[in-house]
Amino acid sequence: MTETVVQAAELATVAPRMLDESRWADVLPAHIGPAKFQRWALGIMQRPDLMEVARTPMGQLSIVTAFLDAATLGLEPGREYHLVPYKGVVKGITDYKGEVKLIWNAVQRPVIASLVYSKDDFAMTGANIPPRHEADWFAEEGRGAIVGGYAYVDYGGGLYSLVIRMTEAEFRKHRDKAQTKNVWDEWPEAMRLKTLVHQLRKWVPWSADVRQP
Fold first, then answer.
1. What pLDDT is attached to residue 4?
2. What is the Cα–Cα distance from 185 to 177, expressed in whole angstroms?
3. What is the pTM of this model?
4. Which residues pair with 192 in a beta bridge?
5. How far apart are CA 149 and CA 134, in angstroms?
6. How far apart are CA 155 and CA 153, in angstroms?
7. In a 3-state reduction of DSSP, which class is residue 67?
């Protein structure tokens, strides 16, 4: 049945009613104001797939929950935190940039993350020493299949965090447990990097607020 004009008009009012800026005031970090976050949220809600989810109360709740999660982390929806429709609701996913940002906020030092391919020359050198990793980075025939990856924080002065390493088998376990397997399949390298940095975040300081010098 074709949607009526009244139904379409009602749907158009859903986003402003769901996303009142007062929702974010108590959870946002100090450097992001509620009005700014609301502009981000309303912009993302123009997507037809999200408006489709917003047709049901459960869908609306999942959208608000995802936005609240993004607000609590201080991440920008659509750029650092993504709302992915899944079976009538929305799942929130922090991407690689968002994971790096959360660590950077606390330590303000570089986060290094890299995937390792079968043709690379790779060796771990210590628990908190960067691995040896050499590769033909621009090989026209490619560097082979992904076999794993690693991530760490460079604190400067020769000091490093624990080096997190994961095998391809471990990546696949994360993929198999994920509800949004389609995202893993569409962005295989990005999702592996995101998973590496997420695991690293369990071992290093991180914050939604930017550390003051």
1. 46
2. 13
3. 0.86
4. none
5. 13
6. 6
7. helix
Residue 168 to residue 59: CA distance in whole angstroms: 34
Alpha-carbon distance of 95 to 37, in angstroms, equals 18
Taking the C-alpha atoms of residue 102 and residue 199, their distance in angstroms, rounded to an integer, is 12
Question: 């974010």: which residue's tokens?
Answer: 24
For the chain, the domains span: 5-94, 97-201
CA dihedral 100, 95, 31, 108 (to 10 degrees): 0
Q: Which residues contact 119 (CB under 8 A, 6 or more apart)?
A: 135, 136, 139, 142, 143, 144
CB 139: neighbour CB atoms within 10 A? Answer: 12
Maximum Cα–Cα distance across the chain: 67
Three-state DSSP class for residue 130: coil
Q: State how far the Cα of 74 lies from the Cα of 29, in Å rounded to an integer.
A: 6
Distance of CA 210 to the CA centre of its chain: 18
**Positions in the chain whose pLDDT score sits under 70:** 1-16, 213
**pLDDT value for 13:** 57
